[in-house]
Amino acid sequence: MYLTLIFLPLISSIMSGLFGRFLGSQGSKVVTISCILFAFLFSLFLFYEVIIMNCVTYIKLSIWINSHLFNVDWGFMFDSLTVVMCCIVTFISFLVHVYSTEYMLHDPHLTRFMSYLSLFTFFMLILVTADNYVQLFVGWEGVGLCSFLLINFWFARIQANKAAIKAMIINRIGDFGLALGIFLIFIHFKSVDYATIFALTPFYLNTQFQFFSFSLNILDVIGLLLFIGAIGKSAQLGLHTWLPDAMEGPTPVSALIHAATMVTAGIFLIARSSLIYEFVPVILNFITFIGASTAFFAASIGLVQNDIKRIIAYSTCSQLGYMIFTCGLSNYNVGIFHLINHAFFKALLFLGAGSIIHAVSDEQDLRKMGGLKTSLPFTYSAIIIGSLALSGFPFLTGFYSKDVILETAYSKFSLLSHYSYYLGTLGAFLTAFYSTRLIYFVFLAKPNGYKSVYKTAKDSGIPISFSLFILTIPSIFFGYFAKDMFIGFGSDFWGNSLYVTTLNYNIIDSEFIDLSYKLSPLGFSFLGIGLGSLLYTLNSKFLYLSKLTKVGKFFYNFINKKWFFDKVYNEIIAQNTFKIGFDISYKLIDKGLVEVFGPKGLSNFVMNNSLQLLKLQTKNIYHYAFTILLGVTLTFMFKFVIIELSFEYIVLVLLATCYYFFKFNAKTFK
């Protein structure tokens, strides 16, 4: 049953992808949905057996690589962290599959789309169930491949091509860091197996290695390289630019990527490697700084976006920042708890946005919507629930994890923990504000679209409505019922899957901080909701006039241009890289040195010198006598230079020869 859970999505992907023309659209729907449903049911059984019955399971399937000391098996590890991730991945994937049957109904390539979704699910399950870093890397690259295929699903669209290529390239940067981290782990630990590495980690606490003239701590470098992989996959500050552009794919893809699969892989990697990170406090501080900065940065950009899917995408980036910085503060269980809660309400928001787009003839611009409250009452209710859960409204799912994240951040009483607390609190205010803005523009504002669109706008059919209804239930109740189990005092839910040193464990301290700091995030969330409602419903002219001021225009342009990250990447980094590649790699090295000293240069040298030698054939005997005399003289001179003279004279002779060589090959450089 354990292996069946993993390979059912692969079977459904193969059936739909290779035999889709025989199964047809209806057959592909039945096969893929059935396989993912059974995978979800099996994951629930695993939850009972592994967590409730406390029976951690290891499976060695076969030998993969066996080369001297480098041994890698196809192995699977089912502990608390793995099983929780399996439940979330299969649950969200099942609902996305059901949702896609209506959303992609009229697409002629539905079978290919369903195949890609199932393959995406399979690789994510490979990633979370792996018992070694190499197998994790297989799943890591697999979800990257599937994201490229799904973002670029409508491959005839230029923007979809650009977005998919951008996602692939930026993720390669992070993947390169992860690969280097795995190489370094094997070089020093002589293994890539989790159990071996985690058992040996304390013995490498002060181990140094030389890199050029620098002496570096081995665990610090490994932790940093693994985190670079997480930055790329989880779209943290610096490598975040691919995530909003990934909205060019179909909406079900956005829900699957943002809620349960690709972007959560970075959080999973940090949590899985918690035993390494607990011994590298410097890297934990860096993780905290990047996560807190991302949480505020992405929330600020979401304020001015007009594409409904991009607003939700930036909220994903911001929420991932919360998860990252709480892991940097050693609260891995709180980070995973927020990951699970976030999966429910973020899938609800994306699928709700897809229902809106579906109803208004594929329009995504907020400014061309409005007044849809009466036309889409069920979708309106779903978006309200998802937005309030995202904002941390009391007693909804998001409230139980976001507030704990900020409370534990403040209770660390360090500079970085307070930095993350204050930025996280401001991020909560901005999140509530842009969520209110989205609801107002789509549902409450005066209609701004075409009359023909409003005449046909209505709630979606049964598959879409079913997915939204199911997601509203955990978005409301899951946090309340699961809080004590996941992060409660004395709970052994996570077992040995997460490791925190006694010095870093501070969830108890969070209960004793001042009440004002406990209530501040909630107060700022209410302030964001209230201010957004007030400004957009009663005094929208104030926002318009404030943007026309010099200061308002500066800040609006700065945020609307996404803090100029894309401008810096495109005009400074990318253009200079292309220029260096053309002028140095191509013209100087490839077409220059390689050609001159390579086949073309050699052929030109032989041809030019042959023509010069041909001129010596004058048919005059005194010329031949002079040539013989010159040859004998040069022979004795070279013998004298090589044997009697110093190295400097030999160098001069070689330089003169090179000058002669380049003189007759100058045309090559033109």
- Structural class of the helices, strands and pairings? mainly alpha
- Describe the sheet with the most strands: 2 strands, antiparallel
Number of strands: 4
Q: How many distinct folded domains? A: 4
Low-confidence stretches: none
Please supply descriptive tags for the structure shown above:
670 residues; mainly alpha; two-stranded antiparallel ribbon; two-stranded antiparallel sheet; 27 helices; globular
Task: Characterize the structure shown.
- The protein is mostly helical.
- It folds into 4 domains: 1-208 and 232-249 and 260-273, no CATH class; 280-494 and 514-560, no CATH class; 563-591; 598-669, no CATH class.
- It has 27 helices and 4 strands.
- Strands 1-2 form a two-stranded antiparallel ribbon. Strands 3-4 form a two-stranded antiparallel ribbon.
- Strand 1 (57-67) and strand 2 (70-78) form a beta hairpin.
- Helix 14 (308-328) packs antiparallel against helix 15 (332-359), helix 16 (377-391) runs parallel beside helix 20 and helix 17 runs parallel beside helix 20 (462-487).
- The longest helix has 33 residues, at 20-52.
- The radius of gyration is 31 Å and the shape is globular.
